[in-house]
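sanity check this record:
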Amino acid sequence: MKNERDEQFHQFVVSRRAALVRTATLLTAGDAHLAEDLVQSTLTKLYVAWPSFQRADNPDGYVRRTLVNALTDERRRWWRRSERPMAEVPDRAAAEHVNGDVSDGLRVALKELPPKMRAALVFRYFYDLDVADTADALGCSEGTVKSQTARALDRLRAVLGNNPSLATL
């Protein structure tokens, strides 16, 4: 039998999971499996801290910060550093290709960026957050967001060869 907390959390998951997966996919530069892992970690942390989440002044910021923290935690895992990605996993069906608003060229270029730079770009330009909200999500100063964003854009332009489609970034 579900209690009120479980029902509220269930409604949250139903309404927000797809958006969380999209954000996590962008943060991981298209790694759908890691994105799913991040969303699961984020939802687990949110469930445990549900009363705090409900009292938060900025629930969206709380979720973004939890997602970024899950990414940071994942990158620190010892086995993740020694894991070797493969184009095709033997004897398995091919993974679903994540469709989204990001071209393959941009996805490859994003993958070249360090996770914090990538996250700064995702929050600033894909989700149109201001500098303060991005800084809150990343747990850093506004100046750091500005410098990380500028450096990331420079690196993207270099990787993509000043592609005109980046003019919106």
About this structure: The radius of gyration is 17 Å. Residues 92-101 have pLDDT under 50 and may be disordered. The longest helix spans residues 4-27.
